[in-house]
Amino acid sequence: MKKHIKLIIAAAVAVSSVVSIPAFAKQTVKVGMSGNYVPFTFSSKDVLQGFEIDLWNEIALRSDYDVKFVLSSFSGLFGMLEAGHIDTISNQITITPARLEQYAFTTPYVVDGVQIVTKKDRDDINSVADLKGKKVAVNLGSNFEETLRANDPKQEIDIITYDTGFVQDVVIGRTDAFIMDRVGSAALIKKSGLPLKLAGKPFETIENAMPFLNKPEQLAIRDTVNAALLSMGNDGTLAKISIKWLGSDVTQ
Amino acid sequence: MQMPLDVQYILELLPILLKYLSVTMEMAILGFCFAIILAVILAIVRVFKLPVLHNFAGLFISFFRGTPLLVQLFLLYYGLPQVMPIFAGVDAFSAAIIGLSLHFSAYMAESIRAAIMGVNKSQMEACLSIGMTRLQAMRRIILPQAARVATPSLMNYFIDMIKSTSLAFTLGVAEIMAKAQMEASSSFKYFESFLAVALIYWAVIEIFSRLQHYLEIRMNRAY
Predict the structure, then answer these.
(1) What is the ipTM for the molecules in this complex?
(2) The pTM of the whole model exceeds 0.80
(3) Chain B residues bordering chain A (beta-carbon distance below 8 Å)
């Protein structure tokens, strides 16, 4: 009889410990990043910082996850994801058809694309249609010239190809606008402090998100992250982080 | 215009990098300890030509000498977990140490084997004649003499290992090379950052070279 009681107590202790531990321990999400992509994830004076860091600190607050940043060279990140060393990658990963076959992505948190940039004080240019009859600069060798021409079947835009100096020409008003990728433009404006702005929404968009493995446990994390991203989008936190690091909102 | 060399930046960066030197040295020292144990075992197996084990040791040395360290690290850290999920539990730091010890043990086994072969055959015969087993002879008489001969080349491998730990960044270990690369990409001072990390490696290895010199003098005292 005594033995039975001991057994029951032991069983009770075992069960209670198994049940109670998950309630106390926060789940840790391991987020892989390169740590050398300014201004998204970089280290300066030994402090890891950037857009992605702020983003995940906020996700941690809203999801009750412990977030652990795992740094690796960019080329190693997908290998680490596949091998299960990290749960996801937060490094401006672009959603491509090939990656979509392999991974489950979160909702996009940065929308990149071909962007029109004009002087800060003008508001007559907001789309490709507004460029009709205007002088527009593109960088020699970039694919933006081709993209712009494809959007201009009647050849009404005066496209000027520059080797260098196109940014300065827009600033001094010699040229009306220039075309570049959106995130690059935002970073350039923020870093240079020049009186320029992103004019309108990007055309030919690409979307950046975080990939997860197609496994039930990983998908659960993905869904929680999605919920956090949605609430951050709704209350303007996402835009605030974007403005802090890039000077403008590139999150939608 | 910018100065050609920002000395101030290097002086600021050095203490930051030095904080991560312990990670580099831990990998090198732990890796070297495991490597030397493995190398002695491999060398003895090869010298005694133990059946089966001898062939296995030959294959092991052939593979780990015949493939680049970076390939071995990638196989271990990115490859193995895909076929054997249990390896996903091995963190980058441990994987780097395992990779370094396997790789360098293959080289070190060969120089230890050569050192053992270099000890005069009559020594082993003398041991056997007074009734020692071959393993006893190895431990008491042959290995201590071989150690003296092997020391310079083993120290060379240790120095090589310290430098090879810089590959651990590709697995995500935050050691000094990783830190230098990250600081460089945010400050755009590539020359200064990599110069700083090169100076640290150089200084550390210079210390160990001096140590090697001292060690050799000590071990040669009896001769």
Answers:
(1) 0.73
(2) no
(3) 12, 16, 19, 74, 77-82, 85, 87-88, 91-92, 169-172, 174, 178-179, 181-187
